[in-house]
Design a protein that fits this description.
By secondary structure, this protein is an alpha/beta fold. Helices cover 38% and strands 16% of the residues. The structure holds S-adenosylmethionine. The site of S-adenosylmethionine has 18 residues, from loops. This is Methyltransferase type 11 domain-containing protein.
Length: 234
């Protein structure tokens, strides 16, 4: 009998680079353009990917610093990866529009995907002109002082890729996002489900662990299915 090889662990799915625009950030995180314009300090977008947030929010008087390990590649190469992310999303939408499109856009995937193209172009131009606003860095360690940001945003990473971020990694990353957030400010994390729409099964335990570290937190409902984890810096 031939010895059988032990089963190999399934490879972790690659983290897509995406390019969501400001309006999709506002809808996902439960924010408004006016609220962003009134913030008393800078915003951190981690992971920023090829999103349009930093470029678009500046027009509202809001300073955004984006952080992502992909910025080490330079804007052109990251934008090329984001074009691949857009193609992957177009495929996913074709297969299951209900899961991947906001309810009001279910029958109009093309304008939705064009909003990603526009955000990607804005990112490329902004990151080329202002490289200091795009910091190459990876959670769970960010190169910012405690309490730097009035608002910290983290979308489509910590809960979207549970094979990459297990519970202990999620806790470390959430504590880091809270650390760089100013007292009285908030860190918002979205979505709270994985790429197949399955809610994080250990959110209650994670929230208790955050409280143990003196990080107050709540779950904000932003719509029938939208939920955002909101942390308040200790
Ligand atoms: C799905 S994109 C989200 C980008 C943006 N927030 C958006 O919604 O368009 C995920 C991003 O996470 C970045 N990433 C991967 N590992 C990371 C880590 N450890 N810390 C921070 N960002 C990471 C990837 O480079 C990629 O750009």
């Amino acid at each position: 009998m031939r010895p059988t090889a032990p089963p190999r662990p399934a490879p972790a799915p690659p983290v897509l680079v995406t390019s969501r625009p400001l309006d999709e950030y506002c809808a996902g995180f439960g924010l408004t353009r006016a609220g962003l314009g009134r913030l008393p300090g800078p915003v951190l977008d981690c992971p920023g990917g090829a999103a349009g947030l930093a470029a678009e929010a500046r027009a509202l008087g809001c300073e955004v610093v984006a952080a992502d390990p992909g910025y080490a590649l330079g804007p052109g190469r990251l934008a090329a990866l984001a074009a691949g992310g857009r193609a992957a999303m177009a495929d996913a939408i074709r297969r299951d529009p209900r899961r991947h499109l906001p309810a009001d856009r279910r029958h109009r995937p093309d304008p939705y995907l064009r909003s990603w193209d526009r955000a990607r172009r804005l990112f490329t131009a902004d990151a080329t002109a202002h490289p200091d606003r795009y910091v190459a860095a990876a959670l769970p360690r960010l190169p910012f002082a405690d309490g730097t940001f009035a608002l910290t945003l983290s979308s489509y990473l910590l809960f979207a890729y549970p094979a990459v971020f297990g519970p202990a990694d999620q806790l470390r990353a959430l504590r880091e996002l809270a650390r760089v957030t100013a007292p009285g400010g908030e860190a918002r994390i979205y979505p709270l489900n994985d790429g197949r729409g399955r809610p994080c099964p250990h959110l209650t335990e994670l929230r208790a662990a955050l409280r143990h570290h003196r990080i107050a937190n709540r779950v904000l409902r932003t719509g029938p299915t939208g939920r955002v984890l909101v942390l308040t810096a200790p």
